[in-house]
Amino acid sequence: MIILAGPSASGKTATCLYLQEHYGIKKVVTHTTRSKREGEEEGVDYHFVDDDTFNNMVKNDEFIEHIHYNGNQYGTSKKEVKLDKCCTLEFEGAKTYYSLHDKNIVIFYLYCDECTRRERMLSRGDGKKNVEERIDNDHKAFKLDDEIKKIFDFEIDTSKYSLEKTSQIIVEKYYQILKSRGIDTTTINIKR
Known about the structure:
single chain, alpha/beta, five-stranded parallel β-sheet, 7 helices, about 40% helix
């Protein structure tokens, strides 16, 4: 499983979408108790479940991680960890996956300079106040030291590469890292 972690506007979502469209990598579909929004599809955007179902899944230890957010529950099922899947996470989520010590999970840290991140957020329509709040939050959440850096298998400065090149690097490194861990990569269904 490919995990893309990094601060806001570091390119996580765009890279994950590119990997899906051009390499056939599937998106991790999480569970939620929130109502389906117009245009969302079951099993594509989320697995929509009621509170009782979600709570039973928690009780049965079926989630890697789960949270309450804005009055709803969200969680990632252990069944979603597969070699041909990708997800984007904030730092706390990446730490949770790292703590599994699953050799099938490869965590990439995507980052870029603050100026580029501001430009990206503003160009996608984030308000100036929201942009500054996200930058401030990221300073706290992604304060990297040697202890924290150990959870990442590979780091990429997305301001140095195109989306196409960033994705190519991720796929190449993904295979290299898995092979170094003794994983049979011939069974992975990713276009190369």
